[in-house]
Design a protein that fits this description.
The chain is an alpha+beta fold. The protein has one domain (about 20-155). It has helices at about 20-75, 100-105, and strands at about 105-110, 110-120, 125-135, 145-150, 155. A five-stranded antiparallel sheet has the order 1-2-3-4-5. The longest helix is centred in the first third of the chain and has 52 residues, at about 20-75.
Amino acid sequence: MNPIQKKEDHSRPRLSNKGFSLIELLIVVAVILIVAAIAIPNYIQSKMRANEAAAVHSIRDISTAELFYSTTYGINYTTTLVQLSGTGVNPDFNNAGLIDDVLAGGVKQGYLITYTPITTDSLGHTLTYTVTADPTNPGTTGQRHFYTDQTCVIRSNISVTAGPTDLPI
C-alpha cells in the first residue's frame, strides 16, 4: 500500500443524501392536514350557500312561471308543478313547458320544493298557492328554509319551514 493513500475510515457510517427523512415526511403530512382542516369546512359552507341560492332561484322561477301561466291561460294558477313543466313544443294548460322536469319533480340541489294550492274558485282553478323550499338535510345541503306565494315575495326562516309571516329576503 502506498503510504500517501489514505485508509478509508470504516468506523463512521456514511450518511446518504438520497430521499427524505421520516421527520421531513411527517412535517409535510402535518402541513397538508392543517390546510385540509381549514379548507374543508369552507368548502361545505360554500356548497350550502350555493344550494340556498339555487333554492331561491327555483322558487322565483316557479312564481314567475305561475304569473306567466295565469296571464296566458286566464285560469289563475296551476294545481300542480307538473302542469308548469313539459316540453313546451305544444304548450297547453296541462303541459305549459315553463319549468324543467327536475324542478317539477320537487327536489333540486339538496332542497325539497313543495307547491300547495290554497284556495280555488267554483271551477276548481287555483286562486292562491304557496311554494316552500326546505333543505333535504339541514346543516348539510342548506340551512335556511324559503317560502313564497302569489305575491312573489320570497321569505326565509333559519330554523323551521318558512311561512307568510317570516321576513323577506
